[in-house]
Amino acid sequence: MALRTLTTIGRKISEWNLLKITTVFATNTRNLKQVTQSETADGTLVIAGTYVPSDRASNLVTVKLDHEGPCSACYMCKLNLDVKHTDVLILSQFLRTDGCMLPRRITGLCKRQQKRIGTMVTMAQKAGLMSNINPSWSHKDPRKRYRYKKWNSYWDETTIKC
């Protein structure tokens, strides 16, 4: 009697756990996997995953592999992105929480783009577009600098040498 009750409780728990399984999983940047459950004639449960095309596939940026430029490994060079010092949302992705620049092995940029992004971050901070995360006594805070250096700086994007 007790064994029969435990098996029915076990079946109910396993059925309840199967209902908790979500039916769509993200597997790749371009594909979604839909999980289907079916039971065969002999009582075995078959769980199968099939790829479903994403409805957001048109929003993905595709990179051609036959790119011939100064750098073939960097995605900024491949996509030919022109990031300026006013694009603070893009630049903030390359900063740590303490305000320092992320290293190249994490950002995946080439030397040229890493230096360029670092220059853009400095320019955005000096222009007052991005905050400087420094101690209160630091002279890197633009308001605590001497004379003309405490005012915001403005640059022409064509003069950037990187």
Automatic annotation (TrEMBL):
Any one GO molecular function term: small ribosomal subunit rRNA binding
Which domain of life, per UniProt? Eukaryota
SUPFAM superfamilies associated with the record:
Ribosomal protein S18
One matching Pfam family, short form?
Ribosomal_S18
* InterPro entries assigned: Ribosomal_bS18 (IPR001648), Ribosomal_bS18_sf (IPR036870)
**May I have one GO cellular component term?**
mitochondrial inner membrane
| Annotated compartments | Mitochondrion
Give the UniProt record's GO annotations in the biological process aspect.
mitochondrial translation
Keywords tagged on the record: Mitochondrion, Ribonucleoprotein, Ribosomal protein, Transit peptide
The family note in this entry says: Belongs to the bacterial ribosomal protein bS18 family. Mitochondrion-specific ribosomal protein mL66 subfamily.
Entry's PANTHER family? 30S RIBOSOMAL PROTEIN S18, LARGE RIBOSOMAL SUBUNIT PROTEIN ML66
**Record protein name field:** Large ribosomal subunit protein mL66
Q: Which organism is it from?
A: Daphnia magna
